[in-house]
């Protein structure tokens, strides 16, 4: 009789290690949470009112309101943050003259960039143009004059601080130009190659103008191709003819890219705020679940009926169920895109932890623990597993909401010319 009474405690010892293993297996690490939170520390902070508006819309599960708030903010702030453009290249390539020509300003005017045969730009200097509102054109010291290596030059010029780089070349496309272009591509910085002094080339070359232009383009492209680089926009201009050759095309491209940069940065920051609001909502739902009483019928303990019900409820809460998405498609005029809610059978693809807890062996184990011969001794284990599954469903739905919202924000807040 004594051995029968002590049997449950002996079995408990046998299962305790397995239970602890499951707990550690399905619990997210504090390290991953810290990494997630730190991703927001470097973002541009909007006003508290903006954060509250987005947070309230997310809390209500109203994605249309989120889109409206983000769209209005982008429109209001599209000219608030300056776009920084750096002009660089070998010294003597006409970088300062190019900046003046781009601004339609003469070299003799008071606020023009200083030019000359010798190196005139010793330190980075910024200039503005009425044609490009709220844009800073930075004239950088040229490469190849001092003894500094290209690595030192890239570090000292701080190219990370610029949104777009214009690499100036003339006479030849040197190894320094190739190194600059390669560095910009590795830093994922958008850049142009601009060949200046085209007037001098045309006057001294025996080739016809079309042949000369093709020859210069080919030379630049072949030098970049040797390094396995993608072809950047290439413009051939004369600094003395700011309305001729590729200058009009360059200005049009620059205006489009400035708009793109401005909207992209704003949208990325606001999308980060949306992500944080969604994470906070998911955290609140999971915290509330800790005190929630879950019925302990065998079907609910070991089946998927409660999971399907929970999945549907949370989709409606976040606004990513079929009904909500259909209404959103109506309001945005994107019915043809076919916004589709995630299906229950796709849950296991979104989370390996949830896949583990929904797998057949775990289901059999829970069935075993739920058997009446245990006199309810294992109910706390089953409850814990059920809570874990419910929490993971919230995480999956939250992640699905973030992914979908980023997509729909890009489709409905960018101006047509940017897309």
From TrEMBL:
InterPro entries assigned to the protein according to its UniProt record, in alphabetical order:
G_IRG_dom, Immunity-related_GTPase-like, IRG, P-loop_NTPase
| A single cellular component GO annotation | endoplasmic reticulum membrane
Record's keyword annotation contains Transmembrane helix: yes
Q: Which residues form the IRG-type G domain?
A: 81-257
Q: Which GO terms describe its molecular function?
A: GTP binding; GTPase activity
Q: Which PROSITE patterns match?
A: G_IRG
The residue ranges crossing the membrane are: 360-382
- Pfam families in UniProt: IIGP
Q: Does the keyword GTP-binding apply?
A: yes
Keywords (A to Z) from UniProt: GTP-binding, Hydrolase, Membrane, Nucleotide-binding, Transmembrane, Transmembrane helix
Q: Which GO terms describe its biological process?
A: autophagosome assembly; CD8-positive, alpha-beta T cell differentiation; cellular response to interferon-beta; cellular response to type II interferon; cytolysis in another organism; defense response to protozoan; negative regulation of PERK-mediated unfolded protein response; positive regulation of autophagosome maturation
Tell me which family the UniProt entry assigns to this protein: Belongs to the TRAFAC class dynamin-like GTPase superfamily. IRG family.
Protein name stated in the entry: Immunity-related GTPase family M protein 1
Organism, by scientific name, is Cricetulus griseus
Q: Which gene encodes it?
A: LOC100754939
